[in-house]
Specification:
Blueprint lengths: L26 E8 L2 E8 L4 E2 L3 E2 L11 H13 L13 H10 L4
C-alpha cells in the first residue's frame, strides 16, 4: 500500500482531539460515470461529500441519443455537491478546517 507523505504540503495535520475519528487524509479519488461520460472527483468519506467532477472526455453532443440521460444524471449529481462546490481538488488544510468549523464539527 502507499500513503501520502507527512512532508507533503497536501498532508492534513489535525490538531484537534476529534480528528482521531477521521482518516489522516480525508479525501480520496473516485471515478464517476454520468451517462456515457467518464470522469473523476475527490470524495470525503467522513462526511459523504465530494468536490466537483473532472472530466476525461467531452460531454455528449446535444443531438446524441444519450445527451438527455447525461443531463439528467449530471443535474442529480451536481445537486449533491454542497460543502465543496467550486473545488476541483480538495481544499487546503486551512480551508478544510474552516469548512468543518462552520459545520460545527471542530
Amino acid at each position: 500500500t502507499w500513503s501520502l507523505s507527512e512532508l507533503s504540503p497536501d498532508f492534513y495535520h489535525f490538531d484537534n482531539p476529534r480528528a482521531s475519528d477521521l482518516d489522516d487524509v480525508p479525501f480520496f479519488v473516485a471515478m464517476v460515470q454520468v451517462g456515457s461520460r467518464l470522469g473523476w472527483r475527490w470524495e470525503n468519506d467522513a462526511s459523504d461529500q465530494h468536490c466537483e467532477m473532472n472530466w476525461l472526455d467531452p460531454e455528449p453532443e446535444k443531438e446524441s441519443s444519450d445527451y438527455e440521460e447525461y443531463t439528467l444524471e449530471l443535474q442529480a449529481m451536481q445537486e449533491k455537491i454542497d460543502l465543496y462546490r467550486g473545488f476541483q481538488q480538495p481544499p487546503t488544510e486551512a480551508e478544510y478546517n474552516r469548512i468543518q468549523n462552520m459545520r460545527g464539527l471542530y
